[in-house]
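Good morning,

Attaching, inline, the backbone tokens for the sequence recovery test we're adding to the shared suite. The designed sequence is right after.
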């Protein structure tokens, strides 16, 4: 049941639609320091809404690691936004999966500011933001994400 419940997508609401400006989000990183999506303005940003307890999220992480390592020197960053509620479990998931990009979470699970800001209904979900702050794609993963990044970075 957990697999099915964390497998849907972001619902379409203002501020999170393709072609619109992204909505900034500020949450603590793993050390408790606040970071924001806007800290990476001017870059391509793949905002990955996930949780260490979400099996479909964890299944996509190896692909994200490959894509991050491939494009991290090309003005590309992944920002992980976790819906976890246990700091140790969250950090263990990050370390186990080798996620070396910025991570943020208020550790409030479905009561997270991320849920209300991005109208999250299910995870994994994502938005791809261009350097001008425009959402250019939503919910890309696997081959679709790989193809979009190859297109953006001329491969």
């Amino acid at each position: 049941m957990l697999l099915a419940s964390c497998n849907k997508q972001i619902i379409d609401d203002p501020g999170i639609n393709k072609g619109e400006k992204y909505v900034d989000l500020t949450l603590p990183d793993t050390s408790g320091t606040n970071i924001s999506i806007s800290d990476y303005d001017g870059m391509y940003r793949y905002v990955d809404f996930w949780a260490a307890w979400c099996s479909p999220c964890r299944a996509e992480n190896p692909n994200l690691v490959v894509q991050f390592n491939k494009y991290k020197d090309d003005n590309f960053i992944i920002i992980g936004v976790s819906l976890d509620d246990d700091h140790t479990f969250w950090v263990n998931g990050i370390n186990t999966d080798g996620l070396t990009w910025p991570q943020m979470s208020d550790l409030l699970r479905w009561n997270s500011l991320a849920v209300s800001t991005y109208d999250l209904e299910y995870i994994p979900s994502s938005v791809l933001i261009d350097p001008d702050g425009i959402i250019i794609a939503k919910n890309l993963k696997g081959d679709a994400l790989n193809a979009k990044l190859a297109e953006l970075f001329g491969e």
